Amino acid sequence: MTGTHTTSTDSTVDRESLPVELVDEQGRPAGICPVSDAHTAPGRLHRAFSVLLFGPDGRVLLQQRAAVKTRFPLRWSNTCCGHPKPGQSLAEAAAVRLGEELRIGAELREVGVYRYRADDPATGRVEDEWDHVLIGEFTGVPGHPDPAEVAALRWADPDRLDSDIDSAPADFTPWLHGVLATARAGR
Question: Is 129 assigned a catalytic role?
């Protein structure tokens, strides 16, 4: 599916205060807390999603996270990611974030879950996520991503990306390798 541009964004929202769904070790709902609490050490396991968009040539669209991000700023990552509101469908939440961050749309499907935990030494924050991986297709490059979310975009060959992550892991988010593996297995 060719991506379509959208304009749904509200830069006045404090994303760190939004509710996130806590989950148990099997991914079952276990409560609610603000995003900031879930990412404060020692971290709390919560539901998240990661989107990877593939081009017609098989490359993946990566984003470099904005410098103002509270976790892993300026690192290259999957196309977009976020947290569904408690009770919100993953597809809806992911579509909203694609619109907010990259100002695009794409048809998405879930291909698996990647469970990970990562400490960010630069910010002292923690990722402890039950991460639903969604994939879609997109042609082109988004014209004007939200600069509060995205520093840069680029297309990458998945095979080359694996070796780039292995040779310079500090340039990438710690979940990218697992998200990429989950996405490729589900294609």
Answer: yes
Check whether 39 is labelled as a binding-site residue.
Answer: yes
Please compute the mean of the pLDDT values over residues 114-132 and round it to a whole number.
96
Task: Return the biggest CA–CA distance within the chain.
Answer: 41
Please check whether residue 50 is in contact with residue 135, taking contact to mean a CB–CB distance below 8 angstroms: no
Q: Which of 80, 81, 100, 149 is catalytic?
A: 81
92 is in an annotated binding site: no
pLDDT tens digit sequence for 35-61: 999 999 999 999 999 999 999 999 999
From 21, 80, 100, 129, the catalytic residue = 129
Q: Which residues pair with 31 in a beta bridge?
A: 22
Beta bridge partners of 53: 136
CB atoms under 10 Å from CB of 42, counted, come to 8
25 is in an annotated binding site: no
Give the domains, in start order, of the chain with CATH numbers.
16-186 (3.90.79.10)
- Cα 68 to the chain's mean position, in Å? 16
> Tell me: the pLDDT tens digits for 90-104?
999 999 999 999 999
